[in-house]
Specification:
mainly alpha; 7 helices; about 75% helix; globular
Amino acid sequence: MSPAPDSRTDDEVLAATDVAVLLRYGLTQDAFRTALFGDGAVAAAVTLDRLGVLPRSLVFVAEIVRSGGLAYAAQLPEPLPSPDPAELLREWLTEAARVTTTPEAETRAARWLTAVAEIIALRRATRGSSA
């Protein structure tokens, strides 16, 4: 059995992770998929959680991606209710839409958004139970 990985703080994960780059490669190349759904999802969750994004907002955007695709979701004037997180998410969606050429990759993007929402929900539940 392999040893548990070293713990890292939120700030260390954010400093070491470029979410846009992981989206660019993780949606289209198998070698980057684990990083996208691992550190990429955690970094995105930490970032959006700090900006006050509710998990249900991301789940809603994931459904839009499933229904209309990444390019459509990236063009939404307000993909999230608040301006700063909306702009950041729009940047991520635009980056992902540039490289996504298959329905499978778009489905992966929607699953990734759902995973990010779940991480935010877990973080909030943990904070709530420890308070």
